[in-house]
Design brief:
The structure holds two protein chains of two kinds.
Chain A: H1 3-55, E1 68-72, E2 83-91, E3 96-109, E4 112-121, H2 129-159, H3 161-172, H4 189-238, H5 244-274, E5 283-285, H6 286-303, E6 307-312, E7 317-319, H7 322-338, E8 345-350, E9 354-360, H8 388-398, E10 402-408, E11 411-417
Parallel strand pairs in A: 6-8
Antiparallel strand pairs in A: 1-4, 2-3, 3-4, 5-7, 8-9, 9-11, 10-11
Helix pairs in contact in A: 1-2, 4-5, 5-8, 6-7, 7-8
Chain B: E1 2-6, H1 10-22, E2 26-30, H2 33-42, E3 47-51, E4 53-54, E5 57-58, H3 59-68, E6 74-79, H4 83-89, E7 97-100, H5 105-119, E8 126-129, E9 132-135, E10 141-143, E11 146-147, H6 152-163, E12 168-170, H7 171-179, H8 189-205, E13 212-215, E14 219-222
Parallel strand pairs in B: 1-2, 1-3, 3-6, 6-7
Antiparallel strand pairs in B: 4-5, 8-9, 9-10, 10-11, 12-14, 13-14
Helix pairs in contact in B: 6-8, 7-8
Classes of the chains: A alpha+beta, B alpha/beta.
Protein name (chain A): histidine kinase
Keywords (chain A): Kinase, Membrane, Phosphoprotein, Transferase, Transmembrane, Transmembrane helix
Pfam family, one (chain A): HisKA
Chain lengths: ~425, ~230
């Protein structure tokens, strides 16, 4: 949710509550003042009637007596003072139940106390005013809300402009880019602090990234060359006259060197892949590639007596760089053959949504979830480096494909679910 | 055949040069960009072995300069860069081949031979070793005129042996040659044994002598029959 929407919602809720409370206050005040005004009029009426009684003339039938009752009262009741009563009564004049106020006062005329009770119908706010009041408040609310929505768009566009610029700058930023992150200065202190921080952070990250990249490239070069040199020397030495014992020693050295070179190559490759950013959308015809890879490994499979059952759909184009896809398939196929049993089987399935490669083999000694890690081997006895699956995983991740590894009933199954098509 | 080796690591350069000299090439070494440029301006070489990372420059820019100057020599890049780098970035553009360090020396030799053969005007397509002849064009191999029924890998293997006759070939070198990029993560050395065994059997079955000797735990060697 956008920032200004959140502001707007918070403001709307606050406005709603304030208006509701205001409405309650207005309603109560109105209701009270209507009653008070009526009581005031009745007090006046009662005073007039009391004066009439004192004058001693007969006012029966006078219009002032229409809503007044006069009765004799006991002496002690005069101490009560006036009482006002509000209740719903049937009003014959209006032909409906109406809230009626009765005001009782006492007057002493010629030593005789009289009770004077006058009444008047009151139109309570609940009946008529309520709707009007609600409408007034509702319109006020709607008007305020509309104002807030429009103003928040305008104001936040203006105030948050530098912030949005910064956001866009971050989105466009890539670690591998040459120049620093592009952020505009702002008049808002907080945004300037944020920008400064971002510039500092990204510059640091860029220099770290560059350093790491250079290191991995240099490590590759600096290590591979001496290894190549030693290997070349051993090869030269082997062609000279040697005893069998010397030859065996050289063989051992040569094999270890070979292994060292492979580990170094794999690690630098993995480092390269960590920093690799796939270019614009590239697609590879996996149907073709899987077939050729399968053919390339056919003789190796055959020598180990491994049967291959394949089911390859045509025209499966998946987002992959071709050489990376090739590397991934090489690693998967060589694993499937290496960790297979003599006379085992490989099942290969390629559909538009996934690639499944299953092979028979011994149960892995480590939990299968760990096998994607570096130097994790399912079978310690085999002479492999244990980095192939880490490379496979990294390549899959680069393109958003999901790879899973399961072991069940003597079958190792690697499932590569292709990332859904982006349209 | 004259070769210029552009490599800044003195020991590696010495080893490669010594190997290539044994194979009857004339090999000169240039340890820096400038020296290589100078040598290439003054002399003509059939093949240039080019390292990418040089102390005073980049091998790729040297390659571009060469091509701009119209130098016709074949170029093989020898580099510590990964094979993947070449494919992903097109590093080897303009070069005839590339080989990544560390490489077996016989493999380098085989690559040089292949390139030289491709470029030579009057092609001699038949190579001979004792009573074995191999046609590089049709890939037919014969023993005493009798056609051998070899698979592609076996043919490849036989040619590799003949090209490096009298030399010890390690299992790893053979595997790297036979499977190329597919060997990256593969202990295919075990499979080398099978291929060599099949090849020997096919040659002896056709009445040829078994010239291949095994060096236990290490590799194989193609000997002249009488040595």
């Amino acid at each position: 949710m956008k920032l200004n929407y959140r502001y707007t919602i918070a403001y709307a809720v606050i406005t709603f509550f304030v208006l509701s409370i205001g409405f309650a206050i207005v309603y109560a005040a109105l209701s009270r003042s209507v009653t008070q005004a009526t009581i005031g009029k009745l007090e006046h009426l009662n005073a007039v009637v009391a004066a009439q009684l004192k004058s001693g003339r007969d006012y029966t039938g006078d219009p002032s007596r229409a809503n007044v009752q006069i009765s004799r009262a006991s002496f002690d009741s005069t101490n009560h003072g006036s009482t006002a009563q509000i209740r719903d009564e049937w009003n014959a004049a209006l032909q409906s139940e109406v809230s009626t106020i009765r005001l009782t006062t006492y007057a002493v005329v010629g030593g005789q106390p009289y009770r004077i009770t006058s009444k008047a119908a009151v139109v309570e706010p609940s009946d008529v005013y309520l709707t009007g009041l609600v409408l007034v408040f509702a319109w006020t609310f709607v008007f305020l809300l509309a104002l807030v929505v429009i103003l928040s768009e305008v104001i936040s566009w203006y105030i948050l402009k530098p912030f949005n610029n910064t956001l866009r700058g971050i989105q466009l930023f890539q670690l591998s880019q040459k120049n620093t992150i592009d952020l505009h200065p702002s008049r808002t202190a907080e945004f300037n602090v944020l920008n400064e921080f971002l510039v500092r952070m990204t510059a640091q990250a860029q220099s770290d990234y560059q350093g790491l990249k250079e290191f991995s490239e240099n490590a590759s070069h600096e290590l591979q060359t001496p290894i190549a040199s030693i290997k070349a020397k051993i090869e030269l030495l082997i062609d000279s006259e040697l005893t069998e014992k010397q030859l065996l020693l050289l063989t051992g050295m040569h094999d270890e060197l070979e292994r060292l070179a492979k580990i170094n190559q794999s690690l630098t490759l993995l480092a390269k892949l960590e920093h690799y950013e796939s270019g614009p959308e590239v697609r590879t015809d996996l149907s073709q590639l899987v077939r050729t890879t399968e053919a390339a490994f056919a003789d190796l499979a055959e020598m180990k007596g491994i049967r291959t059952v394949e089911q390859i759909a045509d025209d499966v184009h998946v987002s992959f760089d071709e050489s990376l896809a090739q590397l991934l398939l090489n690693n998967l196929f060589s694993n499937a053959i290496r960790h297979n049993l003599p006379g085992g089987e490989i099942q290969l399935q390629l559909s538009a949504t996934e690639l499944v490669l299953a092979n028979t083999g011994h149960a892995p000694s480590a939990p299968v979830s760990e096998l994607f890690g570096r130097f994790k081997k399912g079978n310690a006895s085999l002479d492999s480096i244990g980095i192939g699956l880490a490379i496979v995983k990294r390549i899959s991740e680069l393109y958003g494909h999901r790879i899973t590894y399961t072991y069940e009933d003597g079958w190792h199954r690697i499932r590569l679910a292709f990332a859904p098509e982006q349209t | 055949m004259k070769i210029l080796l552009v490599e800044d690591h003195p020991e590696l350069a010495k080893s490669i040069a010594s190997y290539l000299t044994q194979e009857h090439y004339i090999c000169e070494v240039a340890p820096t960009f400038d020296e290589a440029r100078e040598k290439l301006a003054l002399f003509t070489y059939d093949c240039v072995l080019l390292d990418i990372m040089l102390p005073d420059g980049n091998g790729i820019s040297l390659l571009k300069l060469l091509r701009k100057d119209g130098v016709e020599s074949s170029v093989i890049i020898i580099s510590a860069q990964n094979a993947l780098d070449f494919k992903l970035t097109g590093l080897s553009e303009g070069a005839d081949d590339y080989i990544t360090k560390p490489f077996p020396l016989p493999e380098l030799h085989a690559r040089i031979k292949a390139i030289m053969r491709r470029r030579s005007v009057h092609k001699n397509n038949i190579i001979t070793f004792q009573d074995i002849t191999a046609d590089l064009e049709s890939l037919e191999c014969r023993v005493n005129g009798k056609l051998l029924n070899l698979t592609r890998k076996e043919t490849n293997l036989l040619l590799y042996f003949i090209n490096n006759k009298g030399r010890m070939l390690t299992r790893q070198a053979i595997a790297a040659h036979l499977w190329g990029d597919y060997t990256d993560n593969l202990d295919s050395v075990d499979f080398v044994y099978q291929h060599v065994k099949n090849l020997r059997k096919k040659i002896t079955d056709a009445g040829g002598k078994d010239y291949i000797s095994t060096v236990y735990g290490f590799g194989y060697k193609l000997n002249a029959a009488d040595s």
